[in-house]
Design goal:
Blueprint lengths: L1 H17 L2 H33 L1
Helix pairs in contact: 1-2
Length: 54
């Protein structure tokens, strides 16, 4: 999932470079959402692994 967030971020950067505002904003929005979901899953997994060991 982090891979997809990075891919959409790169698409947003390239689109912004060429001046496609709507496309860049859409790709950046998708990248933000995917990164947020990835971060949430990573935190939950980390906390659950601490609880299982303890």
């Amino acid at each position: 999932m982090l891979h997809y967030a990075v891919v959409f971020f790169v698409i947003a950067l390239v689109a912004a470079l060429f001046g496609f505002g709507g496309l860049a904003a859409g790709a950046a929005g998708i990248a933000k959402v995917l990164f947020g979901v990835f971060l949430l899953i990573a935190i939950v997994t980390f906390v659950l692994s601490l609880l299982r060991k303890g």
